Amino acid sequence: MKTNIITKESTLNTPSESVTDEEWPGLRLQLHLGMQRHKNAVGFASVQFGKLKRAFVISKGEVLIFFKNPRYIKNSGDSYLHAEGCMSIPGKTFKVQRYPKVQIHDDVNGTQTFEGYLAAVVQHEMDHIDGKTIKDLEIKNG
């Protein structure tokens, strides 16, 4: 299965479509394989291997959390500048605005709240499936 990282901006800047129940098992497997192949990754969105679908995975320690059709419920706290890298834009770091706490609802997990570093990771992956990259969101002179 394909898990090479996409760097093509036209793909990365295209919003993703909903995942069907039929597509989910294959996408989940590809996300899992992507995380295994790219050991340093803390998150991996389906768009990063060329599937424009609303699916991603994050690593919470040794546990992988898979998201199918996630959407924001609430972002809270004062936003702050966060320095981030991305496998799709190798070798560069960008400063982006992040919320310290986010609440997400998806078809697999229901509603979950993430804080701190994991909140930033979730926002990063949500940006991917919304067709945005940290390069697009970079805050200059911040």
Please give a structural write-up:
- 25% of the residues lie in helices and 35% in strands.
- The N and C termini lie far apart (40 Å).
Summarize the structure.
This protein has 142 residues and is α+β, with helices and mostly antiparallel strands.
- Strands of the biggest beta sheet: in what spatial order? 1-2-3
- Quantity of strands, as a count: 8
Oligomeric assembly = single chain
How many whole angstroms does the radius of gyration measure? 14 Å
C-alpha termini separation: 40 Å
Q: How large is the count of helical segments? A: 4
The poorly predicted ranges are none
Q: Which secondary-structure class do the elements indicate? A: alpha+beta
Mean pLDDT level: 93
Sum up the overall morphology in one term: globular
Helix-strand sequence: HHEEEEEEEEHH
Helix content: 10-25%
Strand content: 35-45%
Largest sheet: 3 strands, antiparallel
Keywords:
35% strand, 142 residues, alpha+beta, 3-stranded antiparallel beta sheet, 25% helix
Give the SSE layout.
Blueprint: H1 9-12, H2 24-37, E1 43-45, E2 55-60, E3 63-68, E4 71-76, E5 80-86, E6 89-98, E7 101-106, E8 110-115, H3 117-129, H4 134-137
Antiparallel strand pairs: 1-2, 2-3, 4-7, 5-6, 7-8
